[in-house]
């Protein structure tokens, strides 16, 4: 499968590099308005292929995306220190109005993976633009909380001293300040994490929950303060999503697509557990929430819906 990456900055190049390391796709084409940057990134990533998989990596323009099965949208302005993801909206929506039609001219059947922040609103922007060209919403997937979920699992695994791969826990809603850590259904080894903590002598107290919640919710701000932007974690998440599409894996992950109804809020892009395969999102699961989580999900959906309503697409 040919995979396109539009935007060869930190996130786009990290995604392409992660795909090479995972062996995702046979060819990766990097497109950027700065052609020299795209070429440099492609050459640098290509030179890593002898240590990983023999993926073809090159720079190109939109026509070079012909027949691509997956296209990552990582173009746009970077988040500044102290700036919320939603503040980025007005600077990024206009960019996508030019990019998406150009991609579809070359790759009309592609599944879009949206990474540009604020990712949930930009996913809804992308859904509207792509929909004008006949693309169903299931083929426009925002990375959403795939990274937040990974952070949640990593921190729970660290606290319980077990592999994060043994943790099944999700972050739902917005990829941002209003996200919802789904504590009530977080499990390890088929048991609720609170019970696992009790049995292993590593109880999860209210203070532990508050600390983990804060570390997950504020992770991006801390990284941005230290180095200006995040890219490795989300690059890995995008590579994983691309792998699910390329192999028709039908794995279940938290990601963002247009959701007809979330706690009474209509037509909003946010993250829920979803099955991802060759056709994009093939099914959405409705998680059991306690009363507090349900109220928080509604607030998250309302924030995102209000943000999108002010956008001219």
Task: Describe what this molecule looks like in 3D.
This protein is of the alpha/beta class. The chain has ten helices and 14 strands. It has helices at residues 10-22, 35-46, 89-106, 119-131, 146-160, 193-200, 206-217, 219-227, 232-246, 291-309; strands spanning 2-6, 27-31, 56-59, 70-73, 111-114, 140-142, 167-168, 171-172, 180-181, 187-188, 191-192, 251-262, 265-277, 280-284. Strands 3-2-1-4-5-6 form a six-stranded parallel β-sheet, with helices on both faces. A three-stranded antiparallel β-sheet has the order 7-10-11. A three-stranded antiparallel β-sheet has the order 12-13-14. The radius of gyration is 19 Å and the shape is globular. The mean pLDDT is 95.
Task: Present the secondary structure layout.
Blueprint: E1 2-6, H1 10-22, E2 27-31, H2 35-46, E3 56-59, E4 70-73, H3 89-106, E5 111-114, H4 119-131, E6 140-142, H5 146-160, E7 167-168, E8 171-172, E9 180-181, E10 187-188, E11 191-192, H6 193-200, H7 206-217, H8 219-227, H9 232-246, E12 251-262, E13 265-277, E14 280-284, H10 291-309
Parallel strand pairs: 1-2, 1-4, 2-3, 4-5, 5-6
Antiparallel strand pairs: 7-10, 8-9, 10-11, 12-13, 13-14
């Amino acid at each position: 499968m040919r995979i396109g990456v539009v935007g060869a900055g930190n996130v786009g190049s990290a995604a392409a590099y992660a795909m090479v390391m995972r062996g995702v796709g046979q060819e990766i084409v990097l497109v950027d308005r700065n052609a020299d940057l795209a070429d440099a990134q492609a050459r640098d990533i290509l030179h890593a292929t002898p240590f990983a998989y023999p993926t073809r990596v090159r720079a190109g323009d939109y026509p070079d995306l012909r027949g691509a099965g997956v296209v990552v949208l990582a173009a746009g302005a970077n988040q500044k220190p102290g700036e919320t993801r939603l503040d980025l909206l007005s600077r990024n929506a206009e960019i996508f109005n030019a990019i998406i039609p150009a991609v579809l001219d070359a790759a009309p059947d592609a599944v879009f993976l949206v990474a540009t922040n604020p990712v949930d609103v930009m996913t809804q922007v992308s859904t509207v633009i792509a929909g004008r060209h006949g693309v169903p919403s299931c083929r426009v997937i925002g990375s959403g909380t795939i990274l937040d979920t990974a952070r949640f699992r990593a921190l729970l695994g660290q606290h319980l001293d077990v592999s994060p791969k043994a943790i099944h826990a999700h972050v739902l809603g917005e990829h941002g300040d209003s996200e919802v850590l789904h504590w009530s259904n977080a499990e390890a080894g088929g048991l609720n994490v609170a019970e696992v903590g009790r049995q292993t002598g590593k109880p999860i107290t209210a203070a532990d929950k508050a600390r983990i919640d804060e570390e997950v919710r504020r992770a991006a701000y801390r990284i941005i303060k230290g180095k200006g932007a995040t890219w490795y974690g989300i690059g890995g998440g995008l590579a994983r999503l691309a792998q699910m599409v390329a192999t028709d894996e039908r794995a279940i992950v938290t990601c963002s697509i247009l959701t007809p109804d979330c706690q009474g809020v209509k037509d909003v892009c946010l993250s829920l557990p979803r099955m991802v395969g060759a056709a994009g999102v093939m099914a959405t699961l409705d998680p059991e929430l306690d009363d507090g989580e349900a109220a928080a999900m509604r607030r998250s959906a309302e924030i995102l819906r209000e943000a999108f309503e002010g956008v001219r697409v």
